[in-house]
Write a structure and sequence with these properties.
Blueprint lengths: L4 E6 L3 H16 L3 E2 L8 E6 L4 H15 L8 E6 H13 L5 E2 L8 H10 L26 E5 L1 E2 L10 H5 L3 E2 L2 H13 L4 E5 L14 H9 L6 E4 L9 H9 L3 E6 L7 H7 L5 H14 L4 E8 L6 H14 L3 E6 L17 H25 L4 E10 L4 E5 L11 E4 L9 E9 L4 E9 L11
Parallel strand pairs: 1-2, 1-3, 3-4, 4-5, 6-9, 9-10, 10-11, 11-12, 12-13, 16-18
Antiparallel strand pairs: 7-8, 14-15, 14-17, 15-16, 17-18
Helix pairs in contact: 6-7, 11-12
């Protein structure tokens, strides 16, 4: 198998991205040559998402697209991740073009499985989601200066619309010493920002007799890490203890991603959420009290079974009152196997689409106003690199996470370094992104061996 050319296509969320990076590390250790483009691969792996119907359709379409490469030299096509973990038999019957299906905990076996495929061994049996794995070495697919740190897998919340517990299994925290070592490895490679992710980041450590602040305290002590950002923080666990810790630690970004899902009590109850509207209001108040400059991101679902026009208006009212820069919206997807699938009061697709458009329109106006109000701000911005389609360099401040939040277009009369930290002044906005002039360089130069763009 030495020098066989292999590649991985990652679909879905940033948690899946971390799994893909671990998978790439196993392949590298096994002596495979990693390819950047599917067309160059002899072995191609598609790491799938299966959270929603739309994600499953994308996964199947992607697999069928790459199966065509078998006519042009692709030798083995492997599908991993959530889709085969949940629907292994259906995948084997419906996708005969695929040579092997692997689940979410099968990555350590990848080299052995590939060797078996070339020997003609029977397809591997998918391991259950409870058999969690640990891998500290990764091949990063992000820009060199930031990385996602996956602190746990699985979920115990069992929201009535969600398939994740049936796919990923029970909540399992990764041991703190392993996460500390992983963070040290990332920092040694030049990573300056850690972005913590899990299905529920705030639940970290409860199965280990620890809490999230125990982990954060340890990570703040890692040399080289300059900023730690939290995603997927469930509102009932955004505690005063956590907020007080964030306020007192200079490495903690004043940024919280808190998926609220809705703002009306009847909908929250049917969703099986662990907070009500009053508790969510208190969370927002607590965040502002401890972190007055906090950037809060949230997501909302519209069109959940039984959602009335009054319920939907409560959501819009929440948006208008709290005026968050970063908010995302999606329409309820009826997923077989979830409690909400059989609920009465299913909302017609046309109504879902109309409510989704209205919520997005309200938020677009709020975002445009907020970004306009940021003109004149002077703050540290780290360059994420060039956007060749835009012909410009873009970066982020503490208030923006990669890929999901507004970007800051950077202007300077000198070369701009990918990963460089700059003091910049916001000078304008197009209502979606911002523009800034760099005033001066801050911090250290790019990591050794990294390209200056």
């Amino acid at each position: 198998m030495k020098n066989k050319k292999a590649g991985v296509v990652s679909l879905g969320c940033d948690k899946n991205r971390v799994d893909t990076e671990c998978l790439l590390a196993f392949l590298t250790e096994g002596g495979f040559t990693i390819c950047q483009t599917p067309e160059d691969c002899q072995i191609l792996i598609v790491n799938t998402c299966a959270f929603l119907n739309e994600a499953r359709a994308e996964a199947i379409d992607t697999v069928l697209e790459f199966a065509e490469l078998k006519k042009a030299g692709l030798e083995k096509l492997i599908v991993t991740g959530c889709l085969p973990q949940k629907w292994a038999e259906e995948c084997r019957e419906g996708l005969p073009e695929v040579d092997a299906f692997l689940g979410i905990n099968d990555y350590p076996r990848i080299c052995e499985i590939i060797q078996g495929l070339y020997r003609g061994d029977p397809p591997p049996v998918i391991l259950p989601p409870e058999a969690s794995f640990i891998k500290n070495e990764r091949v990063l697919t992000t820009p060199w200066h930031y990385a996602y740190l996956k602190v746990a897998d699985g979920c115990d919340n069992r929201c009535t619309y969600c398939l994740i517990p049936s796919i990923r299994g029970r909540y399992r925290s990764k041991p703190l010493p392993e996460l500390r070592k992983e963070a040290e490895n990332l920092a040694a490679g030049g990573v300056r920002e850690l972005i913590l992710v899990a299905q529920d980041t705030t639940r970290y450590g409860r199965d280990l007799g620890l809490g999230l602040t125990d982990l954060l305290q340890s990570l703040c002590g890692v040399d080289g890490i300059e900023q730690i950002r939290l995603l997927y923080c469930y509102p009932e666990l955004v505690t005063e203890e956590l907020l007080s810790f964030m306020a007192g630690q200079t490495k903690m970004a004043h940024y919280l991603d808190v998926p609220l899902q809705h703002a009306a009590d009847p909908v929250l109850r049917r969703m099986g959420r662990r907070t009500d509207a009053a508790a969510q209001e208190k969370v927002m108040e607590d965040i502002r009290r401890f972190l007055p400059d906090a950037a809060v991101r949230t997501t909302f679902m519209v069109g959940f079974p039984g959602e009335s026009e009054e319920d939907f208006e409560a959501l819009l009212d929440f948006l208008r009152r709290h005026r968050l820069q970063n908010a995302g919206f999606f329409a309820y997807s009826r997923e077989e196997g979830t409690p909400s699938f059989g609920m009465t009061g299913q909302i017609p697709e046309a109504v879902k689409a109309e409510r989704l458009a209205r919520a997005q329109e309200v938020q677009a106006g709020i975002l445009a106003d907020i970004l306009k109000g940021r003109v004149g701000q002077i703050l540290p911005v780290r360059c994420d690199g060039p956007d060749f389609a835009e012909g410009a360099f873009f970066g982020r401040s503490y208030a923006e996470a990669p890929d999901i939040d507004p970007r800051i277009r950077l202007n300077w009369d000198r070369p701009i370094e990918s990963g460089g930290l700059y003091r910049a002044e916001i000078t304008g906005t197009d209502g979606r992104d911002m523009e800034a002039n760099i005033l001066e360089e801050m911090g250290e130069p790019p990591a050794p061996g990294k390209e200056v763009l």
